[in-house]
């Protein structure tokens, strides 16, 4: 897992199940980005971060919910 700068914003890069995952820290401040990076590392170690990142809703469920919320 790494921390890198893309434009003015710092990003976190990691690998999960053979796929590269990138997430913005949404900050231009390196010290804040490092703190976010370490927090994500801790959550990954505890097994919480990827659970939070993956959705459990299927596309059909999402479309049904979207139609219900926006069709009136």
Describe the protein's architecture and organization.
- This protein is α+β, with helices and mostly antiparallel strands.
- The chain has one domain (2-70).
- 47% of the residues lie in helices and 26% in strands.
- It is built from three helices and three strands, in the order βββααα.
- The mean pLDDT is 81.
Q: How many strand elements?
A: 3
State the helical fraction: 40-55%
User: What is the structural class?
Assistant: alpha+beta
Biggest sheet statistics = 3 strands, antiparallel
Provide a count of the helices. 3
Radius of gyration over alpha carbons?
Answer: 16 Å
How many structural domains are formed by the residues?
A: 1
Low-confidence stretches: none
Oligomer status: single chain
Distance between the termini: 45 Å
Strand order of the largest sheet: 1-2-3
Strand content: 25-35%
The string of secondary-structure elements, in order, is EEEHHH
Mean pLDDT: 81
Instruction: Give the overall shape, derived from the CA principal axes.
Output: elongated
Helix/strand layout:
Elements: E1 2-6, E2 9-16, E3 19-24, H1 30-46, H2 49-53, H3 59-70
Antiparallel strand pairs: 1-2, 2-3
Features:
elongated, alpha+beta, 72 residues, 47% helix, three-stranded antiparallel beta sheet, single chain
Short synopsis of the structure:
The protein is α+β, with helices and mostly antiparallel strands. The protein has 3 helices and 3 strands. The longest helix has 17 residues, at 30-46.
């Amino acid at each position: 897992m790494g921390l890198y700068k893309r434009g003015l914003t710092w990003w976190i890069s990691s690998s999960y199940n053979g796929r590269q995952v990138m997430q913005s820290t949404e900050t231009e401040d390196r010290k804040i980005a490092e703190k976010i990076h370490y927090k994500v590392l801790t959550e990954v170690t505890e097994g919480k971060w990827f659970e939070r990142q993956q959705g459990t809703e299927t596309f059909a469920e999402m479309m049904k919910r979207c139609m219900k919320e926006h069709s009136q």
